Amino acid sequence: MTHMSRRMFVGGVVGAGLTVGAGVGLPAVIGSGSTGHLVRSQLKLPAPYKLPLPIPPVARPVSSGSDHDSYRMVQREAIAEILPGVQTPIWGYDGRFPGPTIVSRSGRRTEVEHDNQLPVPTVVHLHGARTPAESDGYPTDLVLPRNGWAASAPMGDQLAKLTRGSRRYVYPLQQPAATLWYHDHRMDFTGPAVYRGLAGFHLVSDDHEQGLGLPSGVRDLPLAIADRAFAADGQFAYPSKDPTLTRTPGVRETYIEGVFGDVILVNGAPWPEHPVDAARYRLRILNASNARRYDLAFRVDGKPVPFVQIGADQGLLDRPREHQHLVIAPAERFDLVIDFAKVRVGAKVELVNSLGRGTTSRVMRFNVVRRAADESRIPAALRQIQPLQRSDATVTREFSFRAGKVHGGHAGWVINGRPFAPDYFAAEPRLGAVEIWRFITDLHHPIHLHQVGFQVLSRGGKPPGAFDTGVKDTIDLRPGEAAEVITRFDAYRGRFVFHCHNSEHEDMAMMANFKVI
Ligand code: C2O
Ligand code: CU
Ligand code: CU
Predict the structure, then answer these.
(1) At residue 295, does pLDDT exceed 60?
(2) Confidence grade of residue 4 (pLDDT, cut at 50, 70, 90)
C-alpha cells in the first residue's frame, strides 16, 4: 500500500500527504540537546514561580464491581486560564489539561468510556499499559465525534475499528505498579491533539509498592512537564499545516524536526511553585512534551540537591539510584524521591533545565515552608527484576530511525526506510518470545514500544547509561546512536505499534506495526 492510500479516508476526505520539500538539516540540532524548532509566544509571559502547582483531580469511578472500576470521560473543548488573564482554548479529557488522574490497582480491571465531543476523531492510548489490541488505541481505531463526522473506515486499513460518539476501553492492568499516562493517538494528528491538551496520568499501584513506606498522599506528586507557545490571542501556537486537523497532517516546513515552545508548564501551569514540608517527596516526572528533552536538576542557592531515582517507565527499580541530574526525553517517566529536610526551612528549591535557554531553563520551584514529621523511607531493595540475558533471545532485529522520503517524495520520518502503513508488519514476534531490538538513529528519537516493557542492553556499544536503568517503554536515543533493548513479548497477541515519540516525527510517519503471533 502506498503512503497516499493510508491517508485516504472515505467520505471524500483525502489527506494531501506531506508536502514538505526541504531536507532535514543536522545543524539545527547540534548543541541544542533536542531535535526541533522553537515557536515563540506572541504575548507577554509571566514571571516564574508566581502561580501554584495544579494537581489534577483523581477521577471517580461511575461504577465499581468486585474486580473492576468503570470511568467515564468526556473529551471536549474548554477555555483554560494558563497564562494569567489570558484565555486559551484547549481540548481536554473532562475539559481539563492535564486530564483527571486515574488511580488503579494492579490486576484490577479498569474500564474507561470515552465520549468524543470534540470536532475531530480521537483515539485514546494508555501509554505503558499491557493492553489487548482492541483497547490499545491503534491509530486508526477512531472514535468519531459525537456531533458528526462524515467518514467510515480509513481506507487501506481493513482492521480499523471505528465507533461513533464513544468507546469503552478495557484495561486488565496485569502489570506491576507504574506511572502510566493516557493521551490521544490518532494517526497523523497526535502532535496537535496532545498539544491542545489531550493527556493525563494513570497511576497503577500494588500491595508490594504500598508496603514499602515510600512518601505518599500529598507527598506523592505527579508532575507532567510540557512546553507550549501562545499566539497573541491566547491560543496555543502549534504550527499545523491544517489548523482544522481534518485533512493535511504535519507541521509547517520549519518545524518538521519537532515543535518546541518557550513556556514550560507543569501540570498545565507555567513555571509554578509548590510549598513543601521539610520531608521526603515522591515526584513522578513525566515528559509530556512533543519534542523537547530536558536535563533536570534541583538547585538551591546555586548548588545541586541530590535525589534518588526509585522508578522508571514501567515501575520500580530493583534498588534506588542517586543522581545529581536527570535527562528525560518525551514520554519517559522517572520516579524520584527528594528529601527537602536536607535543605533549610525557608529554602527555595528550583527545578532547572540545563538544556533550555532563557525561559526554558527553568521548570518550577519548591518552597520549603515548614518542619514536619516524616515516617517515609526509601528501602534499599525496591523490587526484584529478572534481568533478561542476551542468550534468552531467539531473534535480533534492527530498525533505523531516520529522516526520509514519504508520500510524493516529500520529507518526513521513516523506520527502515518505510513510512507508517497500517497493513505492513515490521516484525512478527511469537507470543512469549524474547527478542533483541537494535535501534539506530540520525537525530534524537525517543523510541517507544506499545504493550511491552524492555530492558536496555547496550548504548553506543557500551553498557546502558545512567538513565537507562529498570524496565522502560521508551528509550531516549541521541543523534547517530545505536542501542539494544531486550524484551519478552508475553502480553497479548495482535497488532501493536512502535514509534518515535517525538510527536511531529510520529505524525510524519515514523511508526510501524509489530504483530504478536
Ligand atoms: Cu505514548 Cu504510542 O504512545
Ligand atoms: Cu504507548
Ligand atoms: Cu523521532
Answers:
(1) yes
(2) very low
Strands (E), 324-481: 326-328, 333-339, 348-353, 362-371, 395-405, 411-415, 425-427, 434-441, 445-449, 455-459, 474-477
Helix (H) or strand (E) holding 210: helix 207-210
Query: In the structure, what pLDDT confidence band is assigned to residue 345 with cuts at 50, 70 and 90?
Result: very high
Q: Determine contact, residues 173/113, Cβ cutoff 8 Å.
A: no
Q: Which amino acid is at 454?
A: F
Distance, CA 38 to ligand 1 centroid (Å)? 23
Quick one: cell of 487? 524484551
DSSP 106-138: TTSEEEEEEEE-SSS-B-EEEET----GGGS--
Residue 151 pLDDT > 70 = no
Ligand 1 pocket: which residues have CB below 6 Å?
A: 125, 127, 183, 185, 331, 448, 450, 497, 499, 501
**For ligand 1, atom 1: residue with the closest CA:** 127
Q: What 3-state DSSP class applies to 461?
A: coil
Amino acid at the residue 495: R
Q: For residues 270 and 96, what is the distance between their CA atoms, to the nearest angstrom?
A: 15
Q: Under a CB-based contact definition with an 8 Å cutoff, are residues 163 and 152 in contact?
A: no
Tell me the per-residue pLDDT of 200-238, one tens digit each, with 9 for 90 and over.
999 999 999 999 999 999 999 999 999 999 999 999 999
Q: Is the pTM above the cut of 0.85?
A: yes
Of the two residues 24 and 428, the one the predictor is more confident about is 428
- Could you tell me which residues come within 8 angstroms of residue 55 by beta carbon, excluding any fewer than 6 positions away? 221, 222, 267
φ, ψ for residue 68, nearest 5 deg? -155, 160
With cut-offs at 50, 70 and 90, classify the pLDDT of residue 165.
very high
- Reported as a single tens digit per residue, the pLDDT across 237-274 is 999 999 999 888 899 999 999 999 999 999 999 999 99
What is d(CA 185, CA 125) in angstroms, rounded to the nearest whole number?
Answer: 6
Please report the atom of ligand 1 found closest to the CA of residue 474: 1
- Retrieve residue 323's grid coordinates: 543522581
The closest of 285, 280, 379 to 326, measured between CA atoms, is 285
Ligand nearest to the CA of 446: 3
Q: What angle do CA 460, 464, 470 make, to 5 degrees?
A: 150
Give the other-Cβ count within 10 Å of 357's Cβ. 11
Q: Are 496 and 513 in contact (CB under 8 A)?
A: yes
The residue whose CA is least distant from atom 3 of ligand 1 is: 127
CB 244 within 8 A of CB 207: no
Residue with cell 481505531: 141
Residues 6+ apart with CB under 8 A from 441: 400, 401, 402, 477, 478, 479, 480, 481, 482
pLDDT in tens, 43-99: 999 999 999 999 999 999 999 999 999 999 999 999 999 999 999 999 999 999 999
What pairs with residue 449 in β-bridges? 498
